[in-house]
Specification:
Layout: H1 8-18, H2 27-46
Helix pairs in contact: 1-2
Length: 69
């Protein structure tokens, strides 16, 4: 998807293409929500995780738990 905002007519077209019933009065609300989600994902894509391994690399092992403060 491009960085352009999703318009209500595009929402209607995509919903119909996916076979999702979407009443006409919901097109603009869904377009606004999709725009918000897109802006949040864009910010997440800018984060630099450097050498952070993927979550699948984490191994929770039983070990000695030290609750001393």
């Amino acid at each position: 998807m491009s960085s352009a905002e999703l318009t209500p007519p595009e929402v209607a077209r995509w919903a119909a293409r996916a076979g999702l019933p979407l009443p006409d009065d919901r097109h603009s609300v869904v377009a606004a929500t999709a725009g918000h989600i897109h802006s949040v994902v864009a910010v997440l894509r800018e984060l630099n995780f450097g050498e952070t391994p993927p979550a699948s690399a984490f191994r929770a092992e039983k070990g000695k738990h030290d609750a001393a403060v």
